[in-house]
Amino acid sequence: MKLFVMTMYLLLAPLVIGIRADDADQEAKGLRDTLGAQMVSIGTAAEPNPIRTDPMYAEILARDFNMLATENAFKMGLMRPTEDSYRFEDTDFLVDFAEMNGMDVRGHTLIWHQQLPDWLSNGTYTREELLTIMEEHVTTVVSRYRGRVDAWDVVNEAVEGDGSLRQSIFLQTIGPEYIEYAFRWAAAADPEARLFYNDFGADGLGVKSEGVYRLMESLLAKRVPVHGIGLQMHTTIGDTPDPEDVRRNMDRLAQLGLEIHVTEMDVRLNDEMGDLDTQLQLQAQTYRSIAEVCIQHPACTAFVTWGFSDSNYARAGRPDTPLLFDANYVPKPAYWALADLFASPVLMQCSGQPCR
Ligand code: 9MR
Question: Which of helix, strand or coil describes residue 171?
Fold first, then answer.
């Protein structure tokens, strides 16, 4: 028996080692280098603590991605312990890390109705007072990182599922103008930064994406400095937007002159869709099909996943397995699907148009 196993090992070893060598080459290279010629950034959301404490996390982050989206660190609830103070340790750390590793930064996010500090959500403010708080916040944060944060999610998730504006503290206290104020203050604080509106559930076509489109149209008609739109792309296998609808949505947003980022892609599994292997293959296909739409679209300049490891601790405690690496940082089929797509020579031809 032992002899049989040894013989089989010797016969198969070159094959096995050969496959591993290819995989190892890709892993050593990283997605960002494979994608290089496609002129699309490949990003992921990241947290400061895993970078500080887990060398493997930091290594993969810098090896595979050339854009770092701040998952939580810029949110007001973390940044503003009191009305008079700012906490910049984590954002400084993330921006430094990105710079040291040749990564662009997506600053997420300046104005959002969630993760607000208690002093703000429990306070009672007049319209003028809340405008002053917003102006001070946007101006202070954007000025501090002027020239270092490449793209800001200036306003996040301001539209409801039915396409109307969300009834947030900002809308109720200030009115719909809070959105344009935020963009104008951000532009004044860093005229070079790319300023984005970011939302979920508006990736393909439908009532919400129609509402988001109309919001963008009206902001641009008022010459509000909004440069881009973030399609978050939180999905579940079996319930993902049709890639052709995403393409059509990108087309109309691009016609408004907007740049497009896929900003928070993750793909949750669903046990109703088959055994684990089947689900992982569907997950891989979903990542690939959306990334392909982005790469092929002239206006889509970044493809960003919402974290990269399924490890609970690396994902701020969210118990899903929707990302490119498993909890032990082993690349999943989704990783290989992206690597294969990014290496595809066909896509590098830029579809007969000038390469971006
Ligand atoms: O990933 C973020 C998680 O760690 C936070 O607890 C959560 C708080 O609401 O926010 C998550 O990120 C969200 C992002 O900021 C905006 N779009 C939806 C994201 C996933 O929930």
Answer: helix
In the residue annotation, 129 being an active-site residue is answered as no
Strands (E), 186-281: 194-199, 228-231, 234-236, 259-268
**Alpha-carbon gap, residue 59 to 225, rounded angstroms:** 36
- Domain positions in the chain: 6-17+39-345
- Token reading at 299: 């206006």
CATH tag, 6-17+39-345: 3.20.20.80
Which of 27, 47, 71, 264 is labelled catalytic? 264
- Name which of 30-39, 41-50, 83-92, 120-129 the model is least confident about: 30-39
How many Å lie between the centroid of ligand 1 and the Cα of residue 21?
Answer: 37
Nearest to 192 by CA among 222, 225, 170: 225
Q: pLDDT tens, 55-82?
A: 999 999 999 999 999 999 999 999 999 9
349 lines ligand 1 (CB under 6 A): no
